[in-house]
Amino acid sequence: MIGNGNKATVSKRKNPVNDAADMAAAFKGLGFLVDLLRDATLDDMENAVIRLGNRLGQSPGSYGFFFYIAYATGAGSVAQDGQDRNGLFTSQLLKHLATPGLEIKDVFNRTGADVMGASNNQQVPAIYNQLFKSAWLAGQAAAWARPPHGPGHRCGHRQGPFRQGRQSGLVQ
After folding, report:
1. Is residue 46 part of a domain?
2. C-beta separation of 34 from 168 below 8 A
3. pLDDT along the chain (172 residues), means of 10
4. SS3 of 34, please?
5. What is the gyration radius of the CA atoms in the chain, in angstroms?
6. Is there a domain that residue 88 lies in?
7. How many folded domains does the chain comprise?
8. What is the pLDDT, as a whole number, of residue 142?
């Protein structure tokens, strides 16, 4: 998780560091291994990506979450900082991230809708999807987790959430 709020080209911002810290805590709460970097250098960020790749390579069956499929706002727009500790997008994402039964695409859809609502459609997140499998961060909904057969049937269908052996690197 990387939060850089102290950039040479713009004034210092509190939200990126707070956003990264709160997102790291949320992902840790979901059982992910998270590296948190605050005001990181390019070398620090590159090394974090290499560490993520190495961890994933050593842990078959795990998956990493590299957060470049969503942006707080569309190209050419400026994201709202929000009223409190977090930016508007992150505050809305944190509300949905640990919701049991929400597939990750639904998490982002709800987040985007809430950002638009909270900003009176002034901030429209850009959500890009190149994830063609389903993933649940906080467990599958009960209807999805049950096998399609009656109680006691043993057919090998997988039950429960898609959560085993995870490792995470989240870049925002």
Report:
1. yes
2. yes
3. 80 85 94 91 93 88 74 87 89 94 92 96 90 83 47 42 41 41
4. coil
5. 18
6. yes
7. 1
8. 53
Q: Do the strands 2-3 and 37-38 form a parallel or antiparallel pair, or are they unpaired?
A: parallel
Domain of residue 33, residue span:
2-131
Q: Which two tokens stand for residue 164?
A: 């085993």
Tokens describing residue 119? 């900003």
30, two tokens: 């979901």
CB atoms within 10 A of CB 95: 13
| Whole-Å CA distances, 88 to 77, 145, 148, 166 | 14, 32, 40, 28
Q: Give the integer Cα–Cα distance in Å for 109 and 99.
A: 13
Amino acid (one-letter) located at 88: L
Sign of CA dihedral 98, 104, 106, 108: positive
As given in the structure block, the two tokens for residue 75 are 């190209």
On whether residue 156 sits in a domain, the answer given is: no
End-to-end Cα spacing for the chain: 7
Q: How many CB atoms neighbour CB 73 within 10 A?
A: 19
- Note whether 162 and 134 are within 8 A (CB): yes
Residue 154 in any domain: the answer is no
**CATH value at residue 34:** 3.40.50.1460
| pLDDT score for 67 | 64
pTM of the model: 0.74
